[in-house]
Amino acid sequence: PGTPVCQELQRCWVFHTQQFPLCIKSGPPPKGHPANLTQLWEALESTWASIPVESFRHLVESMYELRIRYLPKGFLHHFSEDKPTLNYFYQQVKNDYMVEIADQVEQDIALKLGCLEIRRFFREMRGNALDKKSNYELLEKDVGLRRFFPKSLLDSVKAKTLRKLIQQTFKQFANMNDDQSILKFLEILAPVYRYDKECFKCALGLSWVIQVELAIGPEEGISYLTDKGSTPTHLANFTQVQTIGYSVMEDKERKGMLQLNVAGAAEPLTVTTPSLTTAENMADLIDGYCRLVNGVTQSFIIRPQKGCCVSTETDDYAEIIDEDDTYTMPSSKFISPSPARDYEIQRDRIELGRCIGEGQFGDVHQGVYNSPENPTLNVAIKTCKNCTSDSVREKFLQEALTMRQFDHPHIVKLIGVITENPVWIIMELCTMGELRSFLQVRKYNLDLSTLILFSHQLSTALAYLESKRFVHRDIAARNVLVSSTDCVMLGDFGLSRYMEDSSYYKASKGKLPIKWMAPESINFRRFTSASDVWMFGVCMWEILMYGIKPFQGVKNNDVIGRIENGERLAMPHNCPPTLYSLMTKCWAYDPSKRPRFTELKTQLSTILEEEKAQQEERLRMEMRRQVTVSWDSGGSDEAPPKVLPPHLMEERLMMQQQQMEEDQRWLEQEECFLHVAPPKKPPRPGAPSHLGSLASLNPVDSYNEGVKVHNTSPRQPCLNVLLQGHHHSNTSPRQPCLNVLLQGHHHSNTSPRQPCL
């Protein structure tokens, strides 16, 4: 077709054949045209001759933008060999700069970038042309400075001053050609605007608790940042991505979900996005890079069927149905009475906030409880989607009835309930989300002692439940919440049961976490404190594995066979042998041979103290190494060692003080050995008797051998002897101290060691 748009597309088709596809951005297209970027990209992969001109008329009407989106490593080198591509990419980056950040950059950078564009735009102009007033006025009036410089710069600088600044800055680039101007522009812009990557606000996992910024580009591959300015954490290279999927989630906000199968990863990489459009956009971007890096044309995307939604429920739970579940809450003689009205909260005191996760019955929201005692208490609010029937409402409130019995620093506290529809359960808010996501995001910032601390805190909570005769039945990292960086809390008591007359509880109906369960629970639905111990061992393994789920790739039906064949989860990397030995005791097939939670709590406390002691010893060894390096370096220009913790710094100063005292005692001993009665008269300068006495004191002088002694001070002979003695007593830490003492003595004549020195 001969329309200008199609001619432009035809000209740009070379980019696609070179694996530099073009992204097209727009608002909603007219009816009957491609509805999203994916469909339009698929259309662009067709032959141009087969696409009717009507298909492109809406491009002009909707102002679609053609963009080079997928960049290879070292793309500037590739583009420098293809001038049309380099110019196209430059115009794209320059327009982004002027629209998005030009008003925010420093004045010096804005001047340089603007002058480089002037140099490129007026390629035939001489380097000193702007010095002439007529040329500058022509640039200012006919072309306009707004084409080259941001509005903030033009408004903030006086016209006369601006003219001088532009003239001075332009001379720096006066001798550059087109390509040099473009490359210099991109070089100056790179530190303040990363035009080589795209970033997306999203969350790792299926919840929206820990938000990150996912960065996708040729250098980083796929990485994320938790805070602005933090170091990116690498997730995967494009060569590792095997398949890409995206879908819409079954929640009220209709969030999107992106899922990547990555080679070598224990489980798929799942990302929650604000919308399906964002998930689709990210999928196409990653797909383009994967095709570019692997040199293939076939897409890596497995596209969802029309109308298909994904449930946030995973295969962690398996359905069991034998007969009706007859469990009811125990009578008041076993549980201290606490009327429901004591926990009833007025709905107008609750401010419902954003959704932060999903529960078995509905969404979990962050909110604020305005109580008389605490006007702005942050809380978590569990909602129920289908609580119209009494049976569903009773099951939903069962968790609240369980939680009201507990008061422990590592168990999530119940704040209150709203029993009228819609039914809400208000709980203590743990701002850092679920433990599994926390471990995955903070993997490189958590040391071993912190992981053991989390395990110990959970053991104290479970020992408390054991003393209350409750079984939790769902102990896993996903059900542990993080209150702070050094405090976790056990939550989700939806499966918890009270053991009244019997020592066990038998499940008959519901969904159970097979891969975390003890063999007697899988085979006979039998749950006891001993089965909770097994699950706690699996949870400890999850913590030491930074959130990886157990039995990856194994079907729920196959788990019991592996357990009965003696297979157990492997020891995590860097796990202390004593801790793994404790895990294996939790996984004893015979429930009677498993330790109780009171024993686990004690043993974990011991392991934690041992790890802390080893950690401090490692720090002390590092501190001693730094002390030795600092003494041995003398007057070198090397950077000082890193700042140590206060208690180790105090220990280091005490060690230095002790060394100084030892050096002082050593000097005093040397003075006693070398003490000689002073002559009646000061020795005549140059007298041979002085040299003779010096030789008699130390006949073998290898340190000063062949060196002529300059007799400039009566203290010089003894000083030489001290230096000789120090040379032969090769104690490296004394040398700097000796120098300091000698320098101090040189400036002060009040020392008791004056006769010797």
TrEMBL record:
What keywords tag this UniProt record? ATP-binding, Cell junction, Cell membrane, Cell projection, Cytoplasm, Kinase, Membrane, Nucleotide-binding, Phosphoprotein, Transferase, Tyrosine-protein kinase
Q: Where is the FERM domain?
A: 1-297
Q: Which Pfam families match?
A: FERM_C_FAK1, FERM_M, PK_Tyr_Ser-Thr
Q: Which InterPro entries match?
A: Band_41_domain, FAK1-like_FERM_C, FAK1/PYK2_FERM_C, FERM/acyl-CoA-bd_prot_sf, FERM_2, FERM_central, FERM_domain, Kinase-like_dom_sf
> What Enzyme Commission number(s) does the record list for this chain?
2.7.10.2
Q: What is the protein's major site of localization?
A: other
Compartments where located: Cell junction, Focal adhesion; Cell membrane; Cell projection; Cytoplasm
Q: Which GO terms describe its cellular component?
A: cell projection; cytoplasm; focal adhesion; plasma membrane
The terms under GO molecular function for this entry are: ATP binding; non-membrane spanning protein tyrosine kinase activity
| Catalysis performed (reactions) | L-tyrosyl-[protein] + ATP = O-phospho-L-tyrosyl-[protein] + ADP + H(+)
Q: Which SUPFAM superfamilies match?
A: PH domain-like, Protein kinase-like (PK-like), Second domain of FERM
**Residues annotated as domain Protein kinase:** 350-608
User: What biological process terms from GO does the record include?
Assistant: positive regulation of cell population proliferation
| Positions of ATP binding | 382
For membrane topology, the record states:
Peripheral membrane protein
What the entry lists under PROSITE patterns is as follows: FERM_3 (PS50057), PROTEIN_KINASE_ATP (PS00107), PROTEIN_KINASE_DOM (PS50011), PROTEIN_KINASE_TYR (PS00109)
What name has this protein been given in UniProt? non-specific protein-tyrosine kinase
